[in-house]
């Protein structure tokens, strides 16, 4: 299973981190060892003092594809999920300043939360206007809609498949809206698509 992530896909989040708006999707990968095990808490790694949550809509690929055209991309997924791309922001900043890859800041163990619940895409009236949010300790901290993506789901699949063969079970993290922030020990993070809770995890 590959975990393929899209960075800088929401204008407000780009501004929030004072990043440059990209001309094409920013892609990075997480190893399968980054997936947080079911019913396990998220442990803040020892090498970071500033780990941030980033809630994102997820897509799970259901058949093998390469060089997928946008008009056919909808055939390669049936479900929408929700997850968190945990980021060691302090480490990421150091790596970016040196022009180095982000993997240590993005792909460490437990850094990819994949909600256990997936929603059939037929449930949604418009896949390009799905609402989602993240609560920290019961307080809303992130809220987004897929309509605000710079690149929509089918465009993302088309782009990724130019470079990587998509296989059954691969998960795409589609990017995070504004509102990212740090986590602390004993925080409780709960993610929702529309009114449905998709995950709830504790930080240790």
What is the assigned CATH homologous superfamily?
Answer: Fumarylacetoacetase-like, C-terminal domain
CATH class: Alpha Beta
- Estimate what percentage of residues fall within beta strands: 25-35%
The H/E string reads EHEEEEEHHEEEEHEEEE
Which architecture does the CATH hierarchy give at level 2? Alpha-Beta Complex
Number of helices: 4
CATH topology: the name is Fumarylacetoacetate hydrolase, domain 2
List segments where confidence is low: pLDDT < 50 over at least 5 consecutive residues: none
Shape: globular
Average pLDDT: 95
Number of strands: 14
Distance between the termini: 26 Å
Helix content: 10-25%
The description of the largest β-sheet is:
7 strands, mixed
Radius of gyration: 16 Å
Helix vs. strand class? alpha+beta
Summed up, the domain count is 1
